[in-house]
Specification:
This protein is mostly beta strands. It is built from three helices and 13 strands; from the N terminus they run αββαββββββββαβββ. The strands form three sheets. Strands 1, 4, 6, 7, 9, 12 and 13 form a seven-stranded mixed β-sheet that branches. A four-stranded antiparallel β-sheet has the order 3-2-5-8, covered by helices on one side. It starts with a helix and ends with a strand.
Length: about 210
């Protein structure tokens, strides 16, 4: 993490942001990632070998093949466990209209998406507001998987970015109430869900 390498990464757009937690996030796109790649302890090595990192352009792949994404996240060493890893896809249809869709691609525990809605159940909440604490008895310390876009159309320009979500933790209002011995006003939000966002990977079809 030298000054030069940090500036080079920003110039390449190979960066991600968090709302405060210091989790580690990986996001690679390509045309040949498979399930066994998610078993590696070196996802970066596989990601750079078989695909492109966050912030890059994904060139058009073989006819009839959808893009695959290798995603990984590691919790903040002194922070909360992870709830889920999502991929947000945006694309332009034939009329030039922008669409977006959120996919849950990796998550903690044994939860399963609702068959009728496709939504993943909440992870739960261990926050004790009065003591401004939480426990890592839910969530996972790391998440890693390979995901293939099930709705890919090689004629449509698209972008993809990753979003990593933690389990709920006390908000600053809970810490202040505990430290100062005050009672928050009714309706004050006392918990927060920290998260991270990667730079996108862009796909542009050939003319």
């Amino acid at each position: 993490n030298t000054r030069e390498s940090l500036w080079d990464a920003m110039k390449r757009r190979e960066t991600y942001a968090t709302t405060g937690s210091r989790m580690i996030v990986r996001f690679f796109g390509g045309w040949g990632f498979d399930a066994k790649d998610a078993q590696s302890r070196l996802p970066g090595e596989i990601g750079y070998t078989k695909g492109v990192p966050m912030g890059a352009d994904l060139e058009q792949g073989p006819k009839g093949r959808a893009p695959t994404f290798l995603v990984a996240a590691l919790k903040d060493p002194i922070g909360a466990n992870l709830d889920r890893y999502q991929i947000i896809k945006g694309w332009l249809d034939k009329d030039g209209k922008l669409h977006e869709k959120v996919y849950d691609v990796a998550w903690s525990g044994t939860r399963k998406p609702d068959p009728s809605t496709g939504k993943l159940p909440p992870v739960g909440n261990t926050v004790d507001v009065e003591s401004a604490t939480w426990t890592n008895t839910i969530g996972a310390p790391e998440l890693i998987t390979v995901w293939k876009d099930p709705d890919f159309d090689d004629r449509e320009a698209a972008f993809y970015y990753g979003r990593v979500i933690e389990i709920p933790t006390p908000r600053w209002t809970a810490y202040d109430a505990k430290r100062l011995g005050t009672k928050p006003l009714d309706g004050t939000k006392m918990t927060i869900v920290e998260r991270a966002y990667t730079s996108p990977i862009w796909y542009t079809p050939k003319p």
